Amino acid sequence: MDVMDNVTRIGVSLEPELLKSFDLLVAQKGFATRSEAIRDLIRNALVQESLSHDDSHAVGTITLVYDHRHGGVKENMMEVQHQHHQVISSSIHVHLDEEKCLEVLVVHGTVEGIQGLVKDLTNVKGVTHGQPVLIAGELSEHHIH
Ligand code: NI
């Protein structure tokens, strides 16, 4: 069977300079072919487009770093996470060193809901880092509590 079954070929016209830059990107990122690179770029663009809508569903993680010795930070982090419990599926806590804690939350919900959680978490004093990584899509109903 031809592995390229169910694929439509399209032609793309590019200015020489743009093509040169694109080929450089393909090489730097280690794509096997231009087609693979273009597919990846299109998928990313579609995900970004979907994530630009507040009511879109997303899954992902929020990576946090905080100083556990900062007054009230643990209690405030706990409070915020309970307020947003519907959005949080799971969490991992790692003690990085004497002061710093790394916490990764696995999240699902609307983009608006997740961004609200990110905002509240990063507003907690003592939290030095709060970075969401979201991808478009929903967990299957089976996994939503
Ligand atoms: Ni810790």
Report on this structure:
- This protein is α+β, with helices and mostly antiparallel strands and 145 residues long.
- It folds into two domains: 3-52, Arc Repressor Mutant; 57-136, ACT-like. Chain A, domain 2 (Alpha-Beta Plaits, 2-Layer Sandwich), CATH 3.30.70.
- The protein is built from four helices and four strands.
- It has helices spanning 16-29, 34-51, 73-83, 111-122; strands spanning 57-67, 88-95, 100-110, 127-136.
- It has a four-stranded antiparallel beta sheet.
- A hairpin with a 4-residue loop joins strand 2 and strand 3 (100-110).
- The longest helix is centred in the first third of the chain and has 18 residues, at 34-51.
- It is elongated, with a radius of gyration of 20 Å.
- The model has no long low-confidence stretch (mean pLDDT 90).
- It binds nickel (II) ion (NI).
**Biggest sheet: strands side by side, in what order?**
2-3-1-4
Question: Which class best fits the helix and strand makeup?
Answer: alpha+beta
Report the β-strand fraction as a percent range: 25-35%
Tell me about the largest β-sheet: 4 strands, antiparallel
Judging from the principal axes of the Cα atoms, what is the shape? elongated
Task: Report a brief summary of the structure.
The protein contains 4 helices and 4 strands; from the N terminus they run ααβαββαβ. It is of the alpha+beta class and 145 residues long.
